[in-house]
Specification:
Number of strands: 4
CATH superfamily of the domain at 1-59: YefM-like domain
Strand order of the largest sheet: 1-2-3-4
Order of helices and strands: EEHHEEHH
Helix content: 25-40%
Radius of gyration: 28 Å
Strand content: 15-25%
Structural class: alpha+beta
CATH architecture of the domain at 1-59: 3-Layer(aba) Sandwich
Largest sheet: 4 strands, mixed
Oligomer: single chain
């Protein structure tokens, strides 16, 4: 009987801007350890690579719902504003003189 050694995903540093780490799975590892990939996706996105090239990402359902939720239009945003019924008192406008235009 052959013993299969459990493989851990390879940790890769992300650029210093974010300071976070990501998990990078090779496709064959992801297939073999799919349930582990899914569990890890609950914490942070899991990147799947094919021949070293980032090809796919597995994200949690919460992250997915944030991405696909319907966005509010500007009109809806203004209609839902707490200042919607606020009366703004502006001073009366001064009548402006007409300018002469040379045509």
């Amino acid at each position: 009987m052959t013993m299969v050694k459990e493989r851990k995903p390879r940790m890769v540093n992300v650029p210093a801007k974010t300071g976070r780490k990501k998990v990078d799975w090779q496709l064959q590892e992801a297939k073999a350890m799919f349930s582990e990939v899914i569990k890890a996706a609950a914490a942070k996105p899991q990147i799947i690579t094919v021949r070293g090239k980032e090809t796919a990402v597995i994200i949690s359902i919460g992250d997915y719902k944030k991405l696909v939720r319907p966005r509010q239009t500007f009109f809806e945003f203004m209609q839902n504003s707490p200042l919607r019924d606020f009366d703004l008192e502006l001073p009366p406008r001064m009548p402006e003189k007409m300018r002469d235009i040379n045509l």
